[in-house]
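Lab notebook: predicted structure, single chain.

Context: the supervisor wants predicted structures on file for every construct in the current expression panel, including those that have not yet been purified. This is the next one on the list. No modifications to the sequence; it matches the entry in the shared construct table.
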Amino acid sequence: MAEPAASNMGDDDQLTSDDPVVVLLVGTSHLAQSVAQLLAGYDVELVRPGSVGSGDRIDVAMFCDDDDVGNIAAALELREYAPSVRIVLRSFNSRVRERLPELLGDCRVLSASRTAAPELCNLAVGEGGPESGPARRSWIVRGLDRMRGSHASAVARQLLRRPLFRWMVGIMLALIVLQAWIAHEAFGYDALRSIHAGVAAIVTLGFADEGLIGPTLADEPAWVQVGSVFSMLIDVVLITVLLGLVADALVSERFARVFGGSARRMRGHVVVAGLGTVGYRVVRELTRRGYRVAAIEADEDGAFVNGARGVGAHVTIADVRQEEEFAALAVDRAVAFLALTDDDAANLEAAFTSMAIAPEVPVVVRCFDSALAERLEAIDGIAASRSVGRLAAPHFVAAALES
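Prediction complete. Output recorded below exactly as produced.
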């Protein structure tokens, strides 16, 4: 379902209305507090989860707590008593967002991280994509017996970047042409069969001397027999090197996906610290826009680590507060750094470390404390400091008040 557009409301704006609208606001999260500030001109009843009541005289009920299951349970309970009340509900899960309107009727289901992610990206890199290079795309094929398209394309890119591989492929094609010509001259094959013989000569390591391809070489001129010997020697080296390069690319890319790979050689990328709900959404949005992303996450079993790797991000499992990890993330060659963990202290430490290592790289900090966020923006080097609740609140208010 399309999310409603938010009005141009600033962090300190309040809404007023000539028509009395009674809003039940459920939750104690930062999002709920930000929504309450925007609705200061309305009759708002702010309650804790579990204290919903019967919904008497309520026009809109907003469930903005951090617990998706708790929000859904409270909304279902309220719907039993108030079938006509509009419900605005926070939920991260996309499948749940699609199904809930069927169960709750007049209902708008939004994700705070999903609505905030594009704005966080805009603060870091602007509204467009990279200045050069096409947007990267990934295909995910479900099933244990099939390779992910993103993995296969990454292996292909890695091989094509290697000059040795390109040389070996060129030599192989030249040998196929040469051996097809030899087959044509020696055996009198037509063009199609000569090409077949040239390819077979590569696969069988030279023209078979036991009648596998055609006539034996015993009665052929000496130059054909000598050429066959050299062909076998070259084919052995060629096939060995090519198979080694392909195996190395497959293994290295697989290790990169399992263990995070290295972002040391990246340039013009975006570094994201923290792969929670917000960090993951930002990674997805950045890769959709065509940016390469290097992410760092402390929890190797985090819910979104594999998801971030699945969209092509380089993920490093480490503590963002460890300064030595910033070299592995190539922060000094990045276009932006976003500190998006769930810990204000960790975000601040990461932001200051990034500013010390790469003062020219813009920094965006996620900060739950709105007063602290305002003060941080006054610091030279911090491009923006925002609370996800503040960014998402206008979207939730717009959904609650839309006609």
